[in-house]
Amino acid sequence: MTAVIAVPSSLDDLTFESVLEQLANHPADAKVIVDARHSTFATPYGLTALLTLAQTRGEKAEFLPPENPDTVSYWARAGFFRYAEELFDVRGHVPRPRSSGESDVLLEMTPVTKSDDVHGVVERIQERAASILLNKLHLESRATMGFAMTLSEACQNIVEHAGRGGWVMVQAYNYRKRLGGRFVVVIAVCDAGVGFRSSLESGQRRPLSDRWDDAVALEAAVVNGVSRYGDPGRGQGLKGIRGYVHRWEGKFSVRSGTARIALIPSWEDDVPRRENLAYFPGAQLQITIPEKVSAVA
Amino acid sequence: MTRIDVGSVLRHSANLPFSDLVTRPTGAAVRRCIQTELAALSEGDVALLDFSQIGMMDYSCADEVVAKLLIALSGQGSHAGYIVFHGITDAHLEAIEVVLDHHGLALVVQFADGGARLVGAVTDEERSIWETVYAQGSAAADDRTAEPAPNAADRARILESLLQRRLLRHNGVAYAPLGPVQ
After folding, report:
1. Average pLDDT for residues B137-152, to the nearest whole number?
2. Which residues make up the CATH 3.30.750 domain(s) of chain B?
3. Residue range A145-166: average pLDDT?
4. CATH level 2 (architecture), domain B1-120
5. Based on CB atoms within 10 Å of each CB, which residue in A100, A284, B45, B126 is the most buried?
């Protein structure tokens, strides 16, 4: 029997968990229909995670696109269907993406599989990111370089560790849910690769402790800078991301396997550590940089 | 002084049409090319590593290009040449300072006007003595004009440490800056 997986009307990093919970009872080779007809909003995390979800299915899943014309148009502009049509059996008509001129999609859905892809991403993002960070987020000019570095390191996590390709997307939008309409820039980098726990195990870099699970692996890598490589220079990428996010009062979350840890700023009421989540392979990173408060007041 | 254009090395070694130093494989390829050029230097020569044509640099590349280069150079003892970094901007410094701090390394940055600065993991005393040597153009271990003035033994130890870290070089029995002096 084909299971129907309902995509929430508002799809973000937290509501995506409901998609994974629905999928948990269905093996990878089971036929499923991913029903996004009633979705009206999706963050970059939601869209990139949907593509990685498709990668994990042995049996190609059907996909029902959003019915709302604005939503489906946005998903098309974000480049979602360009890849979804390869990974899902997409039902119905989806619009062709059209250049919309001024757009808050700083980087549409972009595949990352090799080092050259990271060069391309960094090259494309810099000018537009500088404009958004300075004019909409009112950050200092040095935030621009740090942003490109953060993006680069987040993408390299796929190239260096995932063992398969993933996607990156960057967007600026009004964050009404938490910040009362302040602007944020969000980076989402998702893959369905080996994940942090297996990566550390493959390099025999598991910390010496009684407990070993996805949460401990995430803490070792993201908080303590442990890498699967013995090279003492490794682990600085995630450390650098943490430093950048902290400096600009942003939020950084990483999900892998059955756990998720997050660096939580004062404006957010999320929890720093979630465990026993529905299993999802690979690593899913989200970085949120908010508009500077003093500029809003 | 030999000049190595890192932008040119990036274009040729990694065969990429970009100006940003990002990713570890790119950094490793660039470092290997620089090391080949450095190997051709005579003992005690100074190479000017010019980053003027480089846009931004991420942490991974800074670790591969800058930190590993300095570590390899320090492992070669007195037979190796010296490096002065040029064309360094704020776009590079953020990543460079992080990796230098991580490894306990330091380097000399020379600016277009000829002024120089020590960047990385150094103590206040090391920086002060290094700046004195740069200002004077040369200094002996028993020179007491430096401020702050540690005792002779400490001063000699610090000068020798700066020499070992390839932040100063010998000029006869005295210690000298790596590059031209203002």
Report:
1. 69
2. 1-120
3. 91
4. 2-Layer Sandwich (3.30)
5. A284
State pLDDT tens for residues A124-145.
888 788 888 888 888 888 888 8
Q: What are the chain A neighbours of B63 within 8 Å (beta carbons)?
A: 233-234, 236
Supply A5's token pair: 């997986």
Write out pLDDT tens, residues A81-95. 999 999 999 998 888
Note whether A127 contacts B: Cβ–Cβ < 8 A. Answer: no
Residues of B in contact with A126 (CB under 8 A): 20, 55-56
Tell me, which fold does domain B122-182 have in CATH? Arc Repressor Mutant, subunit A (1.10.10)
Q: Is B45 helix (H, G, I), strand (E, B) or coil?
A: coil
Given A115, A232, A237, which is nearest B25 (Cβ)? A115
How far is A117 from B17, CA to CA, in rounded Å? Answer: 13
Which tens digits make up the pLDDT trace of B164-180? 999 999 888 889 999 76
Please state, rounded to an integer, the average pLDDT across all residues of chain B: 88
Instruction: Closest CB to B59: pick one of A116, A232, A237.
Output: A237
Report yes or no for ipTM above 0.90: no
Name the residue type at position B175. Answer: Y
Mean pLDDT of B127-151: 78
B72 three-state secondary structure: helix
- Contacts of residue A240 in chain B, CB cutoff 8 Å? 58-59, 95, 98
**Which domains does chain A show, CATH number per domain?**
1-93 (3.30.750), 104-297 (3.30.565.10)
Domain with CATH 1.10.10 in chain B: 122-182
